[in-house]
Design a protein that fits this description.
heterodimer; A: mainly alpha; two-stranded antiparallel sheet; 19 helices; 2 strands; B: alpha/beta; Rossmann fold; 6-stranded mixed β-sheet; 4-stranded antiparallel β-sheet; 10 helices; 10 strands; about 45% helix
Chain lengths: ~400, ~260
C-alpha cells in the first residue's frame, strides 16, 4: 500500500520545485503588499498584486497539467519503451502496473486537494483586493459569491486534472479507436452550431454533458485496451528496411506500387462519407454568399487536376494526344476510365451552384455542398487503383519520379 | 516458360516492334541482340510488364501478362526486371537496396541476409555496402543493381544490357558465371539484351536477332553461327545484319591508301 501510494504521488523533486516557486511568488507578493500596499490602494494600482496572485494560479494550473500528463504517461501504449519493457516481464492485465496507475485514483484527492486549497486561498485574497472590494476576509466570507468562488477554486485543479487526463488519454488511444477523431470534431462542430443558433448557455450545457460523456468513454476505452495489452505486446513486428527502393523494383514487385496519396484515398474510402459529413458541418459554420460559392469552383477544379496528377504519377499511355488524333482512337477505355471521377467532380460542383444562382438553394447550404459533394465523388468513385495499375495498358516510368 | 505472340508496339505513330513471336523454355538463356534502336529494350520492357503491347500477348508460366490482378501478381513473384540504367533514390545504401529487393520478393530473412553478404562480396561491394549508392561509381551502381536482381531468387530474370554500364572484368566474369550457374543448375530462365555479341556468346543458349523491330533470326547460338557460315557470333551478326559493313570498311581503307 505504501509503495503504491508513493507511486501515485507526484515525484518529490517536482513537489519541492513547485513549493519553491510558489513560496518565491507568494513571498514576493507579500513583500510588495507589505511595503507598498497602502500606496497601491491609494494609487488604485492593486492590479500588480492581482497579477502576482494570478501567476500563482497559473503555477497551480501548470502543476496540475503536468501531474495529469505524467499519469497518462504511465499508460503503456503512450510510452513505447515502457510497453517494450513490459513485454519482457511476466506482467498480465489483471495485475497492477509496476510503476503506478495510468488512471485517476482516489489517492489523487490529496495532491489535488492541496492544490485546490492553494487556489482557494489565492482566490479569496484576489476577491478581497481593492478597488473592487475593500472588505475584510471575515466580511466577504458572508457573501454567497465568496462561497461560490471557494467551491470553484477548490474543485478547479481536480477539473483541470480530469480534463487534461481525458484529452491526453484520447490522443493516446485515438489511433486505435475507429471514428473517434471524427466523432470528436463532429461534436465540437455541432456544439459551435448550437452556440451560434441557440445561444451560449445551451451550447455550454451540451458541451459540459459531452465532456463528461467523453471522459467516461476515454476511461472505458483505455480500460479495455489495458485488458488486451498482453496480446498487443506479443504481436511480432516484421523488420522494416528503411529507405525507398529503386522505382524499377518498387513498380514491378509482387507488392503493387501505390502512390502515397492514392493509398490514403483508397484506404479511407469506407470512411469517406463520415469525413465529408464532418467537413460539411465545419464548412457550414461561417456565413456563405453566392460569390464564395463560385470561388469554390476554382478549388474543385484544382482538386480534380490534382487527382489526375496523382494517378498520372509514374504512369503514362504510349498513346499521346497526337497519336490518338492521327489514329482516330480518341478514347482508350481501359486507360482513360481513371480520369472519369475527375471530370465528374467538376460536373457535381456545378449542380448546387446553379441551384443557388436560381434561388432554389440558399448559399449557406450550396457553398459547403459545392465543395463536399465533388470531394466525395473524387474520393469514392473510379477504378480500384491496384486493378488499374496492374491490368490497364499503362506504361510505367522507371526514372526519377517528380515527387522525389 | 515465356511465350511472346504477335507483339506489335509503337511510340506515338512510330512502329517499334512488328509481329514479334518466340518462346523461351525454362532453364535457357536467351540473348536479344541487334543494332541500337531496333527495339530490344522495348521488347524486354513489354515482357517485363513495364509497357503494354499495342497488340499481342505475353504468357509467362502459362499466365497472361496484364490480364488479371491475380495473374499479374503471380507473374511478378516469379519475374524480375533490371533496366539498363537503374534509377536509385539518393540516400539508400547498397546493402539496404539489396536487402529491400529481397524482402519485397519474399526471400526468407535468414537466407536473405546470408545471400546478400555473399553477393556483395563477389561483386567487391562489401566494403562500401553501408554507404549511399549515390556515392558509387557507374560500375559499382551497375553491380549493386545486379546484386539486387540476383537476390530476388525470381525464376525469370529479364536483364537489359547487364554487361554494359562500366562493369570491370571481375564484375563481368562474376555475372557471367552466376547466370550460367542459375540456368544450368537452378532451372532459371534468363532473357538479356546486348548490342555486343561477343559478351553474350559465352552465356547465351539461344539468340534472337532483332532488326527494324522484326525477328530476323531466332535459334541456338551454334545454329546462328553455322547458318551464317561464320566462326563466331560476332561474325555471324555482322554477316546477318551488317553485310555491307565489311565492304564499306574495305572501301574506306582503299580510299585511305590512295590518299
Amino acid at each position: 500500500m505504501n509503495r503504491w501510494y508513493r507511486q501515485v504521488m507526484p515525484r518529490r523533486s517536482h513537489v519541492l520545485l513547485f513549493a519553491l516557486l510558489l513560496i518565491l511568488l507568494d513571498s514576493t507578493t507579500g513583500a510588495i503588499w507589505l511595503a507598498w500596499g497602502k500606496w497601491l490602494i491609494e494609487a488604485e494600482a492593486t492590479d500588480v498584486v492581482r497579477i502576482m496572485l494570478y501567476a500563482s494560479h497559473v503555477l497551480c494550473g501548470m502543476a496540475t497539467l503536468l501531474f495529469a500528463l505524467s499519469r497518462v504517461h504511465q499508460f503503456p501504449l503512450a510510452n513505447p519503451s515502457y510497453k517494450q519493457w513490459l513485454a519482457t516481464t511476466p506482467w498480465s492485465s489483471h495485475q497492477r502496473l509496476p510503476f503506478g496507475p495510468w488512471q485517476p485514483v482516489i489517492q489523487d484527492i490529496i495532491p489535488l486537494g492541496v492544490l485546490g486549497v492553494i487556489c482557494a486561498l489565492h482566490g479569496v485574497i484576489t476577491f478581497s483586493l481593492p478597488p473592487d472590494r475593500v472588505v475584510s476576509l471575515s466580511v466577504s466570507a458572508l457573501s454567497p459569491e465568496w462561497w461560490w468562488l471557494m467551491c470553484v477554486s477548490v474543485l478547479l485543479p481536480a477539473l483541470v486534472f480530469c480534463g487534461v487526463w481525458a484529452i491526453a488519454g484520447f490522443c493516446t488511444v485515438m489511433p486505435h479507436w475507429k471514428h473517434s477523431a471524427s466523432v470528436l470534431l463532429f461534436v465540437i462542430g455541432v456544439v459551435i452550431h448550437l452556440g451560434i443558433r441557440l445561444g451560449l448557455p445551451e451550447a455550454t450545457a451540451v458541451a459540459v454533458v459531452c465532456a463528461v460523456v467523453g471522459f467516461v468513454l476515454v476511461y472505458r476505452k483505455m480500460q479495455r485496451m489495458m485488458r488486451t495489452l498482453p496480446q498487443v505486446m506479443n504481436e511480432t513486428q516484421l523488420v522494416k528496411i528503411d529507405g525507398k527502393l529503386a522505382p524499377a523494383f518498387e513498380m514491378l514487385s509482387p507488392r503493387p506500387y501505390r502512390n502515397r496519396v492514392i493509398a490514403i484515398l483508397e484506404d479511407t474510402r469506407p470512411r469517406a462519407l463520415e469525413f465529408c459529413l464532418l467537413l460539411f458541418v465545419w464548412l457550414a459554420l461561417p456565413p456563405w454568399e453566392l460569390k464564395f460559392v463560385v470561388i469554390v469552383g476554382t478549388i474543385v477544379c484544382v482538386l480534380s487536376l490534382a487527382r489526375i496528377a496523382v494517378f498520372a504519377d509514374r504512369t503514362s499511355s504510349h498513346l499521346g494526344l497526337l497519336a490518338r488524333w492521327h489514329s482516330g482512337r480518341f478514347i482508350v477505355p481501359e486507360y482513360d476510365r481513371v480520369w472519369l471521377p475527375s471530370l465528374a467532380m467538376n460536373f457535381v460542383w456545378s449542380v448546387p451552384v446553379l441551384l443557388a444562382i436560381a434561388d432554389m438553394l440558399s448559399p449557406q447550404l450550396a457553398g459547403p455542398l459545392a465543395l463536399v459533394a465533388p470531394i466525395l465523388v473524387g474520393w469514392i468513385c473510379g477504378p480500384d487503383s491496384e486493378q488499374w495499375f496492374l491490368t490497364a495498358p499503362v506504361e510505367y516510368r522507371l526514372g526519377a519520379a517528380r515527387s522525389k | 516458360m515465356i511465350q511472346v505472340s504477335g507483339v506489335y508496339h509503337h511510340f506515338g505513330l512510330r512502329p517499334i516492334l512488328q509481329d514479334v513471336s518466340f518462346s523461351v523454355e525454362a532453364g535457357r538463356t536467351l540473348a536479344i541482340i541487334g543494332p541500337n534502336g531496333m527495339g530490344k529494350t522495348t521488347l524486354l520492357n513489354i515482357m517485363a510488364g513495364v509497357s503494354s503491347p499495342a497488340e499481342g500477348t505475353i504468357l509467362i508460366n502459362g499466365r497472361l501478362r496484364r490480364s488479371t490482378v491475380e495473374d499479374e501478381l503471380a507473374i511478378r513473384q516469379k519475374t524480375l526486371f533490371l533496366p539498363a540504367e537503374l534509377w536509385i533514390p539518393s540516400g539508400i545504401t547498397g546493402r539496404n537496396l539489396v536487402l529491400g529487393v529481397g524482402e519485397v520478393w519474399g526471400v526468407p530473412a535468414r537466407r536473405l541476409f546470408e545471400h546478400a553478404e555473399r553477393l556483395l562480396k563477389v561483386f567487391q561491394l562489401d566494403k562500401i555496402a553501408d554507404s549511399a549508392v549515390s556515392g558509387y561509381s557507374t560500375g559499382q551502381k551497375k553491380k549493386v543493381g545486379l546484386c539486387s536482381a540476383l537476390i530476388s531468387e525470381a525464376s525469370i530474370l529479364l536483364l537489359d544490357e547487364p554487361f554494359s554500364g562500366g562493369l570491370d572484368p571481375a564484375g563481368l566474369t562474376a555475372i557471367k558465371q552466376i547466370l550460367k550457374q542459375l540456368t544450368s543448375h537452378q532451372d532459371r530462365t534468363v532473357v538479356l539484351t546486348s548490342p555486343v555479341p561477343e559478351l553474350v556468346e559465352e552465356v547465351a543458349d539461344d539468340v534472337l536477332i532483332l532488326d527494324e523491330g522484326r525477328v530476323l533470326k531466332y535459334a541456338s547460338v551454334a545454329d546462328v553461327i553455322k547458318d551464317a557460315g561464320a566462326t563466331t557470333l560476332d561474325e555471324a551478326l555482322r554477316k546477318l545484319i551488317f553485310p555491307e559493313t565489311e565492304s564499306q570498311l574495305r572501301d574506306y581503307f582503299v580510299q585511305e591508301s590512295i590518299t
